[in-house]
Amino acid sequence: MSAQGRNKMHGPGRMGTEKAKDFSGTMKKLFSYMKRYKLRFLIMLIFAVASTVFSIVGPRILGKATTELFQGLVAKIQETGVINFEKIASILAGLMCLYAASALFSFVQGFVMSGISNDISYNLRKDISKKINRMPLKYFESRTNGEILSRVTNDVDTLQQSLNQSFTQLITSATTIVGVLVMMLSINVWMTLCALFILPVSLGIIGQVMRRSQKYFQRQQEYLGRVNGQIEEVYGGHNIVKAFNKEDDVIAEFEKTNDKLYESAWKSQFFSGIMMPVMQFVGNLGYVMVALLGGIFAIRGAIEVGDIQSFFQYIRNFTQPIQQMAQVTNMLQSTAAASERVFEFLEEEEEIQTVEHPASISGLKGNVEFENVSFGYDPDKIIIHNFSADIKDGQKIAIVGPTGAGKTTMVKLLMRYYDVNSGSIRVDGHDLREFNRSQLREMFGMVLQDTWLFSGTIMENIRYGRLDATDEEVIAAAKAAHIHKFIMTQPGGYQMVLNEETSNISQGQKQLLTIARAILADNQILILDEATSSVDTRTEERIQKAMDNLMRGRTSFVIAHRLSTIRDADLILVMKDGDIIEQGNHEELMRQGGFYANLYNSQFEKAV
């Protein structure tokens, strides 16, 4: 998408994730969303448990091989027997088959879980994309681009990665803890109790580390979002930064935020990093205690040597999933936070797209009536007060006035981007609220001051006005907009590709392309918001003639600052502070000698 099609960010977007406000509620929504994958989840669960169980049994079988080897060595030393290598080989072969089956099951469950997480992220992005088209304009005007984009990019990515890791890890870790505990108890109860002594110590350490590290992880994600937002903002307006020599200020602001990111990042990573060595130290203390107790039992003949070796492996297998469960807890927090932001967006209030008995736009001519219209973006701050106007089919209506008078707001109301607070706007006697929004907007063609073009060919950009238009119709529209000659001088002509920022053509040429697009759309009602503001005087004259041909027979609303371009308007609405203070044609308003006359004369004096 062209940079012209995106509003400039006015603040850093908060990307990434933080702690969820409602963990349980969000996880319920996520599980509800994942119900469609319950069969695949069941398959993944079965294979994950089977893989873990097979790997848990392995140390016990290996212990039998160790016992057989030890007993054979003792018998050989005492000259009472020999080592039974065939039995040992048979045990090891069975062990290899067991581990191979475990690896195969692990591969299958990983494959299934990857498919589930990718499908979830794919469907979430698709739902978000559909949701965006149903959102009211006020949602986008009240938030930065970074905030909205982070829902589609960072949050969904975080959700996908954490789902892929956390669910599998949770299942395998829980299965491992239960399975290992059973195997340890089957070897020796007292050694198991000794090993379990380290469990509350480990949990206490993990809890302390998590409590201290969580706030730093939150800050890390918050400042990461700010850094990303600043970078996007600066790159989007890099030419403005250079024009005003603000490089040093931008760098200083970035370094200030980056320093805070660095501080929170190293603290969070430090607390996470110390968990492993501390856990290993506590685990080693457990090994010493178990080794002493195991040696005593072996001397007494209560257990076999191979069982001690198996028990050591089980201790390691027991402490590792505990640590993994702690990491899963962090990942689940990340999953919940990302899910919360995504579902928060998906649950935002939508525009009402359809009505029960919609009016049809077929046969409508373009008579527009504003009747006692009042409107404010904030209901407590009304900016348009009791506005009324009766506009006939085919008339050219000019809306003039100083900046902030409410000119563009009138257009937003006409397009039903916003609904009026009171009063009504009617087209051929039908209230705008009687139409389905999509059908209503099919009546309007727009050319705005801020051009919007996308990365694609010139032909594709013009055809965006009417996708079923032929190449000949596109070329005819370009000729009417006086852009055909320019296009033919470009490499590739109509097949020239506009880059992502559409920086390979000038602002005036972009404006001409959007005008060609509006000409091709051939709508009943036209809205022109400073449509010729970015072109030179000679081009403006040609455009004006083309626009006059385009507007002939159609109701047209023209917002203009250069009053010389709207002298031939059938009706001029003069706005000030949200009110229509004067209306009439050019000659009538000049004879009144009011606000419009003063405005026109001041521009004329400047021109002279």
Query: What would you call the shape?
Result: elongated
The class by helix and strand makeup works out as: alpha/beta
Q: Unreliable segments (pLDDT under 50, ≥5 consecutive)?
A: 1-17
Number of strands: 12
Termini separation: 41 Å
Strand order of the largest sheet: 6-9-10-3-11-12
Q: How many strands, which pairing sense, and closed or not: the largest β-sheet?
A: 6 strands, mixed
Helix coverage percent: 55-70%
Mean pLDDT across all amino acids: 79
In brief, what are we looking at here?
The protein has 19 helices and 12 strands. The chain has helices at 23-33, 38-77, 85-132, 137-141, 145-187, 189-196, 198-236, 238-243, 247-299, 305-346, 407-414, 437-441, 458-463, 471-480, 484-488, 507-521, 537-551, 586-592, 595-607, and strands at 368-375, 384-391, 396-400, 422-427, 430-431, 444-447, 456-457, 497-498, 525-529, 555-559, 571-576, 579-584.
